[in-house]
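Help needed: design a sequence for this.
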């Protein structure tokens, strides 16, 4: 039985991914650019559906300019090295992708970008949290990866770029952060059973912010990763607007109270933005997940109608 499984795996690995796979990856690059998730920088990758030991990502190109199979390179998950030893220059931050694929077997696509709308949440004490139903996809919370905590003496440049395995591993760990209680529980369990704590195939936090850098999100498919990236940015815009409005309202309350000569000396009334509960967040994504093909079809049509993008492999499935 084991020999049969091994032969099946080897036969599958020897077969290259379909043209539809690469067409989807090309269009995903274009959609992310069209929706301002990426600009000249940023990238999306996809795990090899035929061999989970490798992944595909474009060469060192602006995402909007990826247009054919030759623009895409294959890399090993183990160390982010190119399968083709003569491969041209690639993304310096491909370790973001390799380390996430290495840690989480269920992740099939990774998006990394630097959208300005998300950046303020990576450098302030205000958490990025879902505020409307379409944002349940981003997860209940968005942990912040502070690369400063992960540098080693061997890191000559503290550039905030994830350019090696240990920096990528630190980021990957952020998708499944442990609380002190869970750490203690795992230590006790490991001590009693001599077993390592299990890592989920797909982590509980699908979106991680990166201090002063941007964000990274994951998906069980390329379409899901794109959906998550776009609605994470949308939520950031809505949340920012809501906080500005709420802040102005609270200032008005304070002015009204003290300007009116009230004699009360207790704390002034303070209102806050209403966030989705953990249950609402999870259930909203459960409900919307079954309709994710609708925006994908629209987004494909948008980039196809633009004169900027070209996909020589033709429209992807579902377009």
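Sure. Designed sequence:
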């Amino acid at each position: 039985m084991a020999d049969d499984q091994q032969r099946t795996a080897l036969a599958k690995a020897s077969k290259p991914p379909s043209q539809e796979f690469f067409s989807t990856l090309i269009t995903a690059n274009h959609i992310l650019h069209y929706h301002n998730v990426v600009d000249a920088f940023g990238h999306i990758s996809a795990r090899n559906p035929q061999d989970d030991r490798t992944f595909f990502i474009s060469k060192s190109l602006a995402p909007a300019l990826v247009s054919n199979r030759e623009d895409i390179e294959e890399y090993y998950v183990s160390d982010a090295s190119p399968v083709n030893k003569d491969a041209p220059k690639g993304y310096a931050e491909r370790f973001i992708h390799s380390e996430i694929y290495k840690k989480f077997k269920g992740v099939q696509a990774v998006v990394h970008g630097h959208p300005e709308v998300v950046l303020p949440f990576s450098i302030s004490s205000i958490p990025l949290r879902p505020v409307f139903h379409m944002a349940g996809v981003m997860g209940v919370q968005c942990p912040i990866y502070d690369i400063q905590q992960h540098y080693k003496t061997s890191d000559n440049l503290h550039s905030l770029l994830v350019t090696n395995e240990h920096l990528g591993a630190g980021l990957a760990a952020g998708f499944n952060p442990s609380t002190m209680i869970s750490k203690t529980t795992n230590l006790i369990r490991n001590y009693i059973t001599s077993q390592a704590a299990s890592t989920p195939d797909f982590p509980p936090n699908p979106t991680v912010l990166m201090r002063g850098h941007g964000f990274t999100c994951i998906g069980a498919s390329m379409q899901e990763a794109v959906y998550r990236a776009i609605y994470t940015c949308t939520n950031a815009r809505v949340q920012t607007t809501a906080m500005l409005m709420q802040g102005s309202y609270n200032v008005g309350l304070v002015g009204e109270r003290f300007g009116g000569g009230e004699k009360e000396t207790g704390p002034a009334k303070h209102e806050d933005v209403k966030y989705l509960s953990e249950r609402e967040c999870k259930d909203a994504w459960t409900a919307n997940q079954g309709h994710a093909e609708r925006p994908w079809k629209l987004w494909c049509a948008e980039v196809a109608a633009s004169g900027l993008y070209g996909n020589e492999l033709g429209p992807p499935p579902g377009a």
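Strands lie at 43-47, 54-58, 72-76, 109-113, 144-145, 207-210, 214-219.
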